[in-house]
From TrEMBL, chain A:
This is Sugar ABC transporter substrate-binding protein. It comes from the Bacteria. PROSITE patterns: PROKAR_LIPOPROTEIN (PS51257). The keyword Signal applies. InterPro entries: Bact_solute-bd_prot1, SBP. PANTHER family: ARABINOSE-BINDING PROTEIN-RELATED, BLR3389 PROTEIN. Residues 1-19 form the signal peptide. SUPFAM superfamilies: Periplasmic binding protein-like II.
Automatic annotation (TrEMBL), chain B:
This is ABC transporter permease. Residues 89-285 form the ABC transmembrane type-1 domain. Keywords: Cell membrane, Membrane, Transmembrane, Transmembrane helix, Transport. It is a multi-pass membrane protein. The chain crosses the membrane at residues 26-47, 93-114, 126-148, 160-179, 200-225, 262-285. Its main location: membrane. One of its GO terms (biological process) is transmembrane transport. It is found in: Cell membrane. It holds the Pfam family BPD_transp_1. GO terms for cellular component: plasma membrane. Belongs to the binding-protein-dependent transport system permease family. PROSITE patterns: ABC_TM1. It comes from Planotetraspora silvatica.
Amino acid sequence: MLKATKRATALAASVVVTALTLAGCSSSDNGGSPVPSSSKAGQAEIDKAMNTPTTLTFWTWVSDIDDEVKLFEQKYPQIKVNVENVGQGPDQYQKLRTALKSGNGAPDLAQIEYQHIPSFTITKSLLNLTPYGAGDLKSNYPEWIWNQVSQDGSVYAVPQDSGPMGHLYRSDIMKKAGITSPPKTWDEYAADAKIVKEKTGSYIGDIASNEPVGMVGLLWQAGAQPFGFDGNKTVTIDVNSAEAKKVYSYWQNLIQQDLVSTDPDFNDQWYQGFSNDKYAGWVTAAWGPLFLQGTVKDTAGKWAAAPLPQWNAGDNVSGNWGGSTNAVLSTTKNPIAAYELAKFINTDPASTKLLNTQQNLFPAMNSVLNEASFTDATSDFFGGQKINELFAQISPTVNTKFQWLPFMDYAYSEFNNTVGNAMTNKGDLSAAADQWQDKLVGYAKQQGFTAQQ
Amino acid sequence: MTETLTRTERKATSVPQRRDSRRSNLLSILLWLCALYFVLPLVWLLIASTKDNSDLFSTFGFWFGRGFSLWDNLVSVFTVRDGQFARWGLNTIIYAGVSAIGASLLATMAGYAFAKYKFPGATAMFSVILGAIMIPLTALALPTYLIFNSIHLTNTMWAIIVPSLVSPFGVYLMRVYAADSVPDSLLEAARMDGAGELRIFWQVGIRLLSPGIVTVFLFSLVATWNNYFLPLIMLNSSDLYPLTVGLAQEQSASAAGGGAQALFSTVITGSFISVVPLVIAFLFLQRYWQSGLATGSVKG
């Protein structure tokens, strides 16, 4: 039901955008904001901006982020911030595009996921933050995160949270199957899957057929470079490379032997699957542990976490699934204040602490990842394990060079039509990936991109 | 006055007649199935709103879970995100109330005029209105958005209320109803007594038309109460959201990935609360609703 609504919403909103384009509403890509293009904004300029009465609008779906914003307003009493939640992820992006196209109603700042930054830089909708001092933030973040928000010396967003991937599993079910240590390699994972299914009847995990972002995270771990974008007119599309096909055929094998399920995630059946022991684990991201605690309380204490199984024994690499940023829109009239807000929320120690403890966001900043109070925290849900420490150690192992297409919405919906479909039907995933590749290349050409394969 | 009228009508029909004695088991079964079909989702909603998240996913849907957390859920509905739910509820009441009153007033005036006055272009205008019934509100949402955007009315309350004020179906219904229930002779008599046209409408027409007005009122109330698409595209500010959009947004927070909040029991309880006022409105206005519905069917 949720997915259907979402799809309808996305469709509706994209129709609005199209309609606006057809109606020939004037769109100004670059608002008339004063951009000090040559040098960094001086401290005097910043002080002046922060002491001028200003109202900022901030679109975000992060709930109760008002608390962090209040800290900012205390520090800068002249600045008032309107926090608006206009929808989560795709819903908000569509609204944002509509507002940008129609020329009014766009906020000063917006929540944008890493993977969708290129689809806004291509329309020059995001302000390059380097002139405002964003370059100085680089050393605060793991390299892979910084690469996600910057391109060729320009910085388009301030990272907020991240989702380095790991493996959550039910230690009680594993134990029942006679497995005492979590699988270290994907080969072991496959072997364990067989044992778990035979001894307990549970699937070792669910690889959701409607979750392209999770699958892309696994491609990321495997060292595939399925996407690329030069910031201008050239895209790289390689979703059926040898590395990617290694991943597809691995899962195809497990799916066809009925050792993993392919239920769509984040719906009733899937939640029930966790409650009734249908799944013995979840290959997920760092935000997964807290999410599980909220939904399957009755399995508390039975969970454990481990790094992702590796392709080669002894390796230590991961991928990322999820995470988002705060970006400043290029149409803003108050670029300095807007950037200062983005910077404050995501780098001020009090604010970042709140983001982690109140909003349950997995931190992006090194300083938070390495803080003792963060890493030493134990989780009762995970039988007293130090979950934060584990994922904080995984974060720097995420492959550093991973890029996105400027049309990830399309790429994901075509994933569902091709690879996702093959997963549901226990079909040939690699052949489906070839189809996905063809669709993406065709679409890129149709949109006027040069597509490298 | 109207109440007594309907009551006498009812009495008249409740006198045993021959067709009453003919019972159809098949029909009874079919109707019971229909009733089940419509009531079961509500029952599920009621039961589900007494469960917490883990009971929701681990216990049978049509019976109560291990814990009884209706109270916790209610508290959470009104406290999540600083209690925005109450704000959304108020918005919905404003949108639906103002739209329904406005729409029934406009439809009554238009329907009365079509039924009782001859004026140039009446047939053509009525044909246009008939045609407009065929166009779903959803299809008009986009053009409406473009118009409202150009006059800077998007993201205001007017963006929801103004488009909901016109009800082509209401005009059609009121025309049919007025043609039947307002006798021309009565109007003639009023004119003879020296009443102006406006006064005749307000003092004679409106009273005779009230069952029809309630019908149109309920139609518009339900339509605006449940409208999702129009507010979805018109509004950007969560302070202006109606319940439909607000609840959908809370629901989607569960799939947000980073920082996801599993608000299922909250959303379900919120949905339950949001249908209660409609149920009450129907129970209270039911008798008018029935007589109004039947009107269009006898004479066209």
